[in-house]
Amino acid sequence: MVNVVIGLEVHVQLKTKSKIFCSCPTNYRDVEPNENLCPTCTAQPGSKPFGLNKTALDNLLKIALALNCKVKDSSVIQRKHYLYPDLPSGYQRTSKPIGIEGNLGKIRIREVHIEEDPGRYELREGTVDYNRAGIPLIEIVTEPDMRSPDDAREFLDELAAILGYLDVARGEPGSMRADANVSIDGGTRVEVKNINSFSGVVAALAYEIVRQQNVLRRGGKVIMETRHFEEATGSTTTLRKKETEEDYRYMPDPDVPPITIKQSHVTELGKTMPELPRAKSARLSKDFGIRSEDAWILVAEVEIADLFEKMAKKAAPQKVALWIRGPLKKQLNYRELTMRQSGLNEEWLSELFDMFETAELSDKAMEQTLIALFDMKRSPRKIATELDLLMTKDTKEIDRVIEAVVNENPKSIEDYKAGNEKALNFVIGNAIKLLKGKADSKLVRELILKRIKEKK
Amino acid sequence: MAIKKPHAASVSAEENLHRKLDMIDKRDAEVKAFIEVYREEALKSAKEVDKRIKDGKAGPLAGLVVAVKNNIAVKGKRLTCASKMLENHHAVYNATVVEKLIAADAIIIGSVNLDEYACGVDGTYSALQRTRNPLDLERVPGGSSAGSGASVAAGMCDAALGSDTGGSVRCPAAFCNAYGLKPTYGAVSRYGLADLAMSLDQIGVISKDKTIMKRVFDAIRGPDPRDQTTQLAENVSKKAAEVKVIGVPKEFFEGVDKHIAAGVRKRIKELEKNYEVREVSIPTLRYTVPIYQLTMAAEFSSAMQKYDGLRYGFPADRNEDLYTSFAKARDASLGKEIKRRIMVGTYITMKEFKDAWYSHALKAREVMKEEFASVMKDVDVLAGPAMPTPPWKFGEEMTPLEMYAADMLTIAANLTGTPAIVEPLSSDFKDGAIQFYGRHFEDDVLFRI
Amino acid sequence: MDIETVRRISEVARLHLTEDELKQLASEMDELLGHFKSVQDIKPPKSSHAAGTAGSSHYMHDLKNSMRDDTMVACDPKVTEAIRKEFTKSEGKHLTAPKSIK
Fold it and tell me: Among A274-283, A423-432, B184-193, B200-209, which is the least confidently predicted range?
């Protein structure tokens, strides 16, 4: 068993209309390269930072509160000096800690602060796009309290959920990045940068742990260095040959007055905060009697939790929970949509669920209706009727089809009798096909077995 | 809005401009104050301004010809900072002060020379051209706003904008025998002024006419949302400040040329007729040069980080690795003094050396501010010489330290943020100039002495 | 000031100096810093704001805030074009940068 120690520095783009120190638009993904630019965000000679974006700071304060941080009375924007193509000024404006000593579950949060995003530098192509330069970022620094890639995944999942609830983050791909620090068996700490997604974090950590183990196994030493995560290969490579730490020559930025934060303002913001995932999960579990692991899955998105609460008032909560985390989530994941983005409402979904529970729709028909619902966005009953998916109520027709498949598939039935379950499924499948999917598979199975018995 | 006629009200804007252009044609080949003359744009503007004057819609600077130091951005024009690094860079925007000049109907006649990146005390560090003192072509015009002082002295403009970090407006004003103003820190927007030292820089004005200098200052001052340090600036001073007591720090006379010291003391004696004059002492004034050099170098090394040869300026070689491409571009295009200051500034802010140097400089600066504040409780302005020597001749070798020492009387205004004005003592620049320091945001008071 | 220190400073400062330049700078910096050393002699009086560790200001003002409302102003395409035109090397709308890190 190897002892792993992991710390994360998570960068999240804050949701604002304009950049942190200028009024340029923040829709950097929707425009051509180098279009959202001004003298300030491209550090033209003579340019200066405008006032700090109020909304960016408020968004950060909400996150700090959600992470149980103490909020400081004041902070200062510093210049962190290094030269890199994506950094227009040759320094990054980054603040001293604003929130400190927080926690997310068992993981302690050392501090959170605000900083400006650099532009996008594609090393392999040698291109730079400054549209992103100046987008406000929150950096969340954890203590090295994580002990495995799974710990990291849990932490990031909950963080993502919180950000969704607060609606303070941009949420586009690449808008949440992380640097990971990992060491094994009390050894040297390695930093891994350039991880552009939360799933990347888990992959990077897994790779890095194995790499370090291999180094030690071969009798080598793990060098303290910064490594670069490559998404495509899931591996980490050496970024900087020198191990000496870069001297950033931090200096308060004389062009930006210090930030004062009134506690009364923080308290006011606190009042506007929604119930957060952890609290909501506990409440749903308690009030609705569902399993805590189901509750935890439901609270990942506030819209899903809200959906559950509404539906569970009208139907059996545990069944609703399983249906949401099962068939509904499957469709959302497949389309890479959040509940909010899907455009589906509780009215339709309750109707669909109800039709399924009352056997008006077979499980397959329910799934097909759900799929159609994403595009057609109308009453499921209307959709199912239009697509002719409603369970057939014609018992004569069902009996006729059962009779037919039993007669036409003697070999399969023999195989089933010999112990091959799959053979029976084949027969059931045929029957459902002939019934145009409008029959419940469990019921069909029952009837086929009954017929087989009768035929003996 | 009442129409304020230009000072030279008897001539039209066009006529005034022609006179200035004629002077440029006559003398700038030898003075070399101008980097670029905006002849066509200026002529066009002048015609338009004359029309507005006729229609009674003219701004407060209508028809005044102003030159702009070439570290202040004029949209579409070269912003060279007198450096090879930016020799072919064109500004993509107007500095706030330029916008205000245009809105006030001033005519911007062109860009004028400076020491490279405003780092210098006599104009000789410009990487582009050598500006000469129009009053004596063998002598330096002063720096770093060398072209600002020279163009004013040579009658090529009515006023010139310069920048002052340690005396760079006041020195050329004194050497070129003109009035010069360094406003209170934060009174004038620095948006569009290429940084030397962010907490020391201010844009100032030079003119042979004190009234014109005031009018230009009034037009360019005021808060600007694009420069956060101007929040306390006012468009017109609301303070009804008055001068009653003039303090004369004894430290201001240490190491000053005898003739200049005598001239300044004589002038101060004359002031005794209308004001109470007292001797005061500000001990940290003896340390101005080191406090300034360290503070300035640290901030300058930060300000210069943006020049990596990618977004503008001298191009970085894309075939080298990142480190080499940046290092070579910077080294090839920046002058010796620039490199020296970057090296000192980098050194004193490095983790292992910071506590011995930068921290001390910051504390010392704080002490100086407190001493000034304490002294200025009892006196309204301070008086003393502007420069310790008259302008020297080209070729008189000066070590960097000697150059830095020339700033010793002007620096304190930048370190403390107080406004300062220089006034020629006579029509002979060799007699020197007197300098007055005021309290924060009491710039207007300086014009009334 | 030894050459190695000066070399290290030049690396942090990203200046590509020759051996001769390094030597010259070493002696120049020695001389300059020798003169500037006197700042270490200034001892702030106890009553001074500068006496404590926090009492040294990087700011030339007492301003305590500079917040701005989150208002977006569309970019002027002529200005963004001018900015791109200033790029010392570009391809299409992208700035071209070196392709290798040291």
Answer: A423-432
**Domain assignment of residue C21, given as a range:** 3-41
A130 and C CB contact within 8 Å:
yes
Query: Domain total for chain C?
Result: 1
pLDDT of B267 over the 70 cut = yes
Q: Does B73 touch chain A (CB under 8 A)?
A: yes
| Structural domain includes residue C89 | no
Tell me if B231 and C63 make a contact (CB, 8 A cut-off).
Answer: yes
The model's confidence at residue A452, banded by pLDDT at 50, 70 and 90, is confident
Residues 2-31 of chain A whose Cβ lies under 8 A from any Cβ of chain C: 16-18, 23-26
| DSSP state at residue B430 | G
Question: 3-state SS string over B247-302?
Answer: EEEHHHHCCCCHHHHHHHHHHHHHHCCCCEEEEECCHHHHHHHHHHHHHHHHHHHH
Q: Which domains are delineated in chain B?
A: 1-283+382-449 (3.90.1300.10)
Domains of chain A: 4-270 (no CATH), 395-455 (1.10.10.410)
CA atoms of A63 and A273, how far apart (whole Å)? 10
Instruction: Give the residues across from A103 on adjacent strands.
Output: A108
What rounded mean pLDDT belongs to chain B?
94
Give A38→chain B minimum CA distance, Å.
9
- Span B277-306, average pLDDT: 96
Is B199 one of the catalytic residues? Answer: no
> Which residues does A contribute to its contact with B (CB < 8 Å)?
38-40, 42-51, 79, 81, 83-85, 88-91, 126, 128, 247, 249, 251, 253-257
What per-residue confidence (pLDDT) applies to B2?
Answer: 34
What is d(CA B385, CA A32) in angstroms, rounded to the nearest whole number?
A: 57
**Chain C, nearest residue to B301 by Cα:** C13
- C8 in a domain, yes or no? yes
- B163 carries an active-site annotation: no
Each residue's pLDDT tens digit, A31-73: 999 999 999 999 999 999 999 999 999 999 999 999 999 999 9
Domain of C14, CATH number, reads 1.10.20
pLDDT of residue A450: 87
End-to-end, the C-alpha distance of chain C in Å comes to: 27
Instruction: Report d(CA B430, CA B138) in Å as an integer.
Output: 13
Quick check: is B69 catalytic? Answer: yes
Contact A322, A361 (CB under 8 A): no
For residues B185 and A224, what is the distance between their CA atoms, to the nearest angstrom?
A: 46
- In tens, the pLDDT along A299-322 reads 999 999 999 999 999 999 999 999
Residue C62 lies in a domain: no
Contact residues on chain A for B79, CB-CB shorter than 8 A: 45-46
Task: Answer whether A259 touches C (CB < 8 Å).
Answer: yes
Contact across the interface for B306 and A257, Cβ inside 8 Å: no
pTM recorded for the entire structure: 0.91
